[in-house]
Design brief:
Elements (H helix, E strand, L loop, with lengths): L7 E5 L4 H12 L3 E6 L2 H13 L4 E5 L5 H14 L5 E4 L15 H29 L2 E6 L12 H21 L4 E8 L6 H4 L11 H12 L9 E4 L5
Parallel strand pairs: 1-2, 1-4, 2-3, 4-5, 5-6, 6-7
The protein binds NADP nicotinamide-adenine-dinucleotide phosphate (NAP).
NADP nicotinamide-adenine-dinucleotide phosphate binds next to α1 and α4.
C-alpha cells in the first residue's frame, strides 16, 4: 500500500479509457474510489473490477454538463464521506478533424463545456472539503494539445490550453491550504477517444495504464512538494 492508502479518490470519466485505468490503479494503491461518468453500466463494470481486486468503489452516474447534478454530487460526498483526498478530472471529449472555419459551433461548445467547464464545476464542488481538511490533490488530465497547436482541432486544443490556465491559477489559490493541483498532458493514448480516429499504430501510442502510473506517482508524492505539470510521450515516435 502506498502513501495514498485509505484515501478517498474521485475520478471523472471512470467508465472507460484513461479514467478507468486511473481508477483501477488508485484502488490498487489502496484508495476508496468514487467513479463518475454517464454510463451506469460501464461504471458498474469498473466497480466490479475494483471489488474483484479486493478494493472498494461507489458509482455516481451524472452528466458533467449539469451544474446542478455536480453541486448535488459535492453535497453527497460531503454528507457520506466528509472528506476527499484526490480528485482526478479525466472526463473529456474530442470532436476534431476539421479546420475551425468549417467546424460546428455545437462541437466547440460541447468540448469547452466538458473539458473545461466540467473540471471547473467538479473542482468548485470538491475544493471546499479539501480546504476544510487542509489537504488534497487535484489532477487534471489535459493533453499535449494543451501546450501545442493542433491544426483541425482548434476547439479541442483551446479547451485543453484553458485547462492548463485553470490548473495553474487554482494551484495558486489552494496551495496555502496544503492542496496540490497538477496537470497531466499525455500524447496519443490507445482508447476509443474521439471515435478512435487516430491513425497511429498501437506501439506509437501510450496505454491508459501509462497515464494511470503517472497519476499514481503524483498523488503518492511527499506532502511538502507538488509537481505542477507532467508531459507523457510514447517512446516510439
Ligand atoms: P474515452 O475513452 O472516450 O473516455 C471519456 C470519458 O469521459 C468516459 O468515461 C466518458 O464517460 C466521460 N465523459 C465524457 N463526457 C462526459 C460528460 N458529459 N459527463 C460525464 N462524463 C463524461 O477517452 P479517454 O481517451 O479515456 O480520454 C480521457 C481524457 O484524456 C480526456 O480528457 C481526453 O481529452 C484526455 N486525453 C486523451 C488522449 C487520447 O489519445 N485518448 C490523449 C491526451 C489526452 P461516459 O460516456 O460514461 O459519460
Amino acid at each position: 500500500m502506498t502513501a495514498i492508502g485509505k484515501s478517498l479518490a474521485i475520478v471523472s470519466g471512470a467508465s472507460r479509457g484513461i479514467g478507468r485505468a486511473i481508477a483501477l490503479r488508485l484502488a490498487q494503491d489502496g484508495a476508496y474510489l468514487v467513479l463518475l461518468g454517464r454510463d451506469q453500466k460501464n461504471l458498474e463494470q469498473v466497480q466490479a473490477e475494483i471489488q474483484a481486486a479486493g478494493s472498494q468503489a461507489d458509482t455516481y452516474p451524472c452528466d458533467l454538463l449539469d451544474s446542478t447534478a455536480i453541486e448535488a454530487f459535492g453535497a453527497e460526498v460531503h454528507r457520506k464521506f466528509g472528506h476527499c483526498d484526490v480528485l482526478v478530472n479525466c472526463a473529456g471529449i474530442g470532436r476534431m478533424g476539421k479546420p475551425l472555419h468549417e467546424s460546428d459551433v455545437a462541437d466547440f461548445d460541447a468540448m469547452i463545456a466538458t473539458n473545461l467547464r466540467g473540471p471547473f464545476l467538479l473542482t468548485k464542488a470538491i475544493a471546499p472539503l479539501m480546504i476544510q481538511q487542509r489537504s488534497g490533490h487535484i489532477v487534471n488530465i489535459s493533453s499535449l494539445s494543451g501546450k501545442n497547436p493542433l491544426p483541425n482541432g482548434a476547439g479541442y486544443a483551446a479547451s485543453k490550453w484553458g485547462l492548463h490556465g485553470l490548473t495553474y491559477s487554482v494551484a495558486e489559490e489552494l496551495r496555502e491550504y496544503g492542496i496540490r493541483v497538477s496537470v497531466v498532458a499525455p500524447g496519443s493514448v490507445a482508447t476509443d477517444f474521439s471515435g478512435g480516429r487516430s491513425s497511429k499504430s498501437p506501439e506509437k501510442k501510450l496505454s491508459p495504464e501509462d497515464v494511470a502510473h503517472v497519476v499514481s506517482m503524483l498523488v503518492g508524492e511527499g506532502s511538502r512538494s507538488f509537481v505542477s505539470e507532467v508531459s507523457i510521450r510514447p517512446i516510439q515516435k
